[in-house]
Amino acid sequence: MAQVVIRDLNKKFDEVHAVKNVNLHIKDKEFMVFVGPSGCGKTTTLRMVAGLESITSGEVLINDTVVNELPPMDRDIAMVFQNYALYPHMSVYDNMAFGLKMRKFERAEIAKRVQEAADILDIGQLLKRKPRQLSGGQRQRVALGRAIVRHPQVFLFDEPLSNLDAKLRVQMRVELKKLHNRLGTTAIYVTHDQVEAMTLGDRVVVMKDGVVQQVGAPLELYNQPANRFVAGFIGSPAMNFATVSLAEHDGAVWVEGPDFRIRPPQSSAGRLRGHAGRQVVLGIRPEDLRVANGSDPADLGFDAVVEVTEQLGSEILLDVKAGPASMVASVEPTVPAKVGDRLRLALNPDRLHFFDTQTEAAI
Amino acid sequence: MIEGAPWRRWVFFYIPLTLFVFVLLFPFYWMLITTFRPDGELYQPWNSPRYQPFWTSNPTLEHIKYLFNETLFADWLWNTMFIAAISTVISLFCGVLAGYALSRLNFPFAGSLGTGIFVTYLVPQTLLFIPLAEIIRNFKLGDTPWSLILTYPTFLIPFCTWLMMGYFKAVPRELEECARIDGASRVQAMLYIIIPVAIPGILSAGIFAFTLSWNEFIYALVFLSSPGEKTVPVGVTSELIRGDVFFWGPLMAGALLGSIPVAMVYSFFVEHYVSGLTGSVKG
């Protein structure tokens, strides 16, 4: 039973303000993912929760207790590091037992817990080996095992899958999810990989330049990004952006691009009316673009020239040029598009995103 | 390896290597052969008809016997060993702690302090022995092993600290952080995790410190005067060179026997020692 509350958290390294006024409430049993590009302050925030980095101002509470001044050992947390940080001179068993030995557990209890964790992670046969005799995936399991034997209140993960190859990463991601479902321990997970964030997190915190951009469930971030940064960061391939102007004709709002003109549906027209006559940024995800057929209304499409096609098997990514704007469209694998083809693309009117050009906030 | 024609391999690899090995090992060979040559052969003029400087047909142990029976060589050997061992232990202890502190604790001026320590190592002993002699005299330590045990760390601690600083920097920080999250205090993390991981580095620092104090000459020459208190390098040169007469046989025997303990220490730890120098720690 543990919740983590972060209040007005700040971290300054000399002149660099790495974490700015972060406020978060991580609920009991929640799997919270911090995601963002390198240098966004996600790892620093995690390290402040762990007690490995001093807090410049603000508070971290674990289970309603302010832990700012507590050393890491007294916070009842466990952390998994990117490079595993296994103790190279100890066997797998001793690696996993170290935390329990330090906390003066009985020998029998240590053996029981290590065995339990080893069974969960399927590393029972590796207990006598040294870390250097293990593969990357096995090391990762041992690092996880070392964290779970302690039955801590909170798990902290610092990019734990980054050193694994792509296939193993997907496999371990699933296992992590299963492990969390099984143990139900509150977890904070830092990654720069938005796919990991979307698949693992109950909620995701998107950070940039030390500032929290948006906190929400994965689909919330995907469907209702709070600003242009979140919209571009979440989703792969990234959202397309084009600067357009909004005009009001005959009571309807029109979006006018350099080479196209579309009429957004009534649902979003209300929000846009206030911005009529101004320039805004239009965002549309590649999967919300498709090749138009005869039945599509004329004012929801535009012409584009195919520049590159990327065959992914399940879909084709078309890099197209629509006027001066470059866009990516994800279309059915049956579309016979070739480089240089001129196509008419239709967009899904319910899935248009608009952002203010100055503040970049969603409209 | 050198690629290309076989002659290239000879010219650029085997021949230079042979020359290098020859230059390196010849003094040891000379030491060895002189130790076992009888005086009759040693003092033959070079133009005598039976002059054969590189080999002996009548090997003898007379020089070694002379060394142990007529001089205090056994005492010198013991003194050297005792002084080198204790000063190495003291220096390693201080060097490991200081190296850890300078590389891991982010206190103000840690960097400049590290450089400062290294600079003290660079002060030549030929300058330093003058004030040190005064200190030794004031503490009435002259002519005792403690005069050396306490002065050798003046150059050994900076040396060990510098070497350990580099080694500790190569140990991933996460190891220690993980230990601290696992429930270890900073001291426990150092004792149970960092020091065991740094054993190769500590061993190389130890071997170097031991060799440096074993071979040290000037302090030993200045601070010790009674024959029974001397160390091997000083004892051999001061007792076996009388005026302008060199007792080559016992001299070389002393040098040979004096280098055996160091050679043994090296060969014992060579594996650790090499990995300590090439030093990579993998988590």
TrEMBL record, chain A:
Which SUPFAM superfamilies does this one have? MOP-like, P-loop containing nucleoside triphosphate hydrolases
Query: What's a single GO MF annotation on this record?
Result: ATP hydrolysis activity
GO CC annotation, single: ATP-binding cassette (ABC) transporter complex, substrate-binding subunit-containing
Q: Which UniProt keywords apply?
A: ATP-binding, Nucleotide-binding, Transport
What is its subcellular localisation? Cell inner membrane
Q: Which InterPro entries does its entry note?
A: AAA+_ATPase, ABC_transporter-like_ATP-bd, ABC_transporter-like_CS, ABC_transpr_MalK-like, ABC_transpr_MalK/UgpC-like, Mo/tungstate-bd_C_term_dom, NA-bd_OB-fold, OB_MalK-like
Q: Does the keyword Membrane apply?
A: no
Predominant location = membrane
- PROSITE patterns recorded for this chain? ABC_TRANSPORTER_1 (PS00211), ABC_TRANSPORTER_2 (PS50893)
Which GO BP terms apply?
carbohydrate transport
- The segment(s) forming the ABC transporter domain are 4-234
Tell me what topology the record assigns in the membrane: Peripheral membrane protein
Family membership, please give it: Belongs to the ABC transporter superfamily.
The protein here is known as sn-glycerol-3-phosphate ABC transporter ATP-binding protein UgpC
Species this chain originates from: Vineibacter terrae
UniProtKB/TrEMBL annotation, chain B:
Q: How does it sit in the membrane?
A: Multi-pass membrane protein
- Which UniProt key words apply to this protein? Cell membrane, Membrane, Transmembrane, Transmembrane helix, Transport
Domain ABC transmembrane type-1 stretches: 77-269
Gene Ontology CC terms, in alphabetical order: plasma membrane
- One Pfam family linked to the record: BPD_transp_1
Record's InterPro entries?
A: BP-dep_ABC_trans_perm, MetI-like, MetI-like_sf
Q: Which GO terms describe its biological process?
A: transmembrane transport
Matching entries from CDD domains are given as: TM_PBP2
Gene3D superfamilies named among the record's database cross-references? MetI-like
Give the residue spans that cross the bilayer.
Answer: 12-33, 76-102, 109-130, 150-168, 189-214, 245-269
Task: Give compartment(s).
Answer: Cell membrane
**Family that this chain belongs to:** Belongs to the binding-protein-dependent transport system permease family.
Q: Give the matching PANTHER family.
A: INNER MEMBRANE ABC TRANSPORTER PERMEASE PROTEIN YCJP (PTHR32243:SF18), MALTOSE TRANSPORT SYSTEM PERMEASE-RELATED (PTHR32243)
Q: In its UniProt entry, what is this protein called?
A: Carbohydrate ABC transporter permease
